[in-house]
TrEMBL record:
Domain DHHA1: 228-302
Keywords: Hydrolase
Protein name according to UniProt: NanoRNase/pAp phosphatase (C-di-AMP/oligoRNAs hydrolase)
InterPro entries in alphabetical order: DDH_dom (IPR001667), DHH_sf (IPR038763), DHHA1_dom (IPR003156), Oligoribo/pAp-PDE_c-di-AMP_PDE (IPR051319)
Ranges where the DDH domain occurs: 18-162
Domain of life: Archaea
Record-level Gene Ontology MF annotations: hydrolase activity; nucleic acid binding
Amino acid sequence: MTAATDLRDLLAGATELTIVCHNNPDPDCLASALALGRIAAAAGVDERRILYSGEISHQQNRAFVNLLDVDLATLDPESVRDREEGSLLAFVDHAVPGANNRVPEGTPVDVVIDHHPHDALDARFVDHREGVGATATILAEYVRELDVDLDGTLATALLFAIRRETLGFLRGVTRAEYDAAAFLHEAADADLLRRLASPAVSGATADAIATAIEHRTIRGSTLLSNVGRTSERDALPQAADYLATLEGVETAIVFGIVEDTVQLSARSTDSRVHVGDALGDAFADVGNAGGHREMAGGEIPLGIFADDAADGDALCDLVATVVTARLADAFGLEGVEGEEETEE
């Protein structure tokens, strides 16, 4: 028996499958959900749905949903807690109820497929491969082994997700990604891949990235930047990706206030640094943070900073001071204050 056949056998006994994406799902999560739905259909599951929380704000993620016509619905947390017999709950590209999703903590999960770092996971079926570069790689393997129909939409979704998650096969890539790409290539739509790779950028995203560039602080090979308030959550990882390419920079961390949370995004090519562990150590007591050695993120409820004396600019200043101090401590940076500063 293999993981793929174990999953098929579990699905074959179900009447319904609910696939929950993480908050603000990216192509790796969305493509994995799409593939799991196809596998479930092939196993005879008649009722299937893909749910998500948060927003799909990144222009590439919006293009992915629109161009591939991914059928999504908004998550009702209570609807997944109390399920009838034969109704399965699956997580793809995340793993724990209440962590980067709005599923109530303690909710039983039937299927977990993920490549992010985690401790022990609890589900009837778990395929957790921290060593691979993308969750979509795992799903592509299942599709191939189970001989699930691979049309242009599914092949394009999985191939684009793998390319995006590994930054064009340059970050965290393994032999498994190349094997998956070889399998998917012939069925994928090359024109659609190009359109997905070059979506239009909103003005708000450009403004947030410009702010991140302007407010950068560099100590040694580590860069920090605070964008203040922004409506574009997904501008932060885009800014981190760009700032990590600056000459002399090996680690870039960008943070900002998005609605009622502080969002963080980190990138690193420094073999001495595990940015996922560093962010987890810095913020685990106040929010959710972590990820891979080269790519990580975090979310902190803004409520922990709010009081009668902190609002508007004062709140932004308080967030900048506290977050910068924690990052400076976690990454061993000297002379970094909460003030915005640029060092060339």
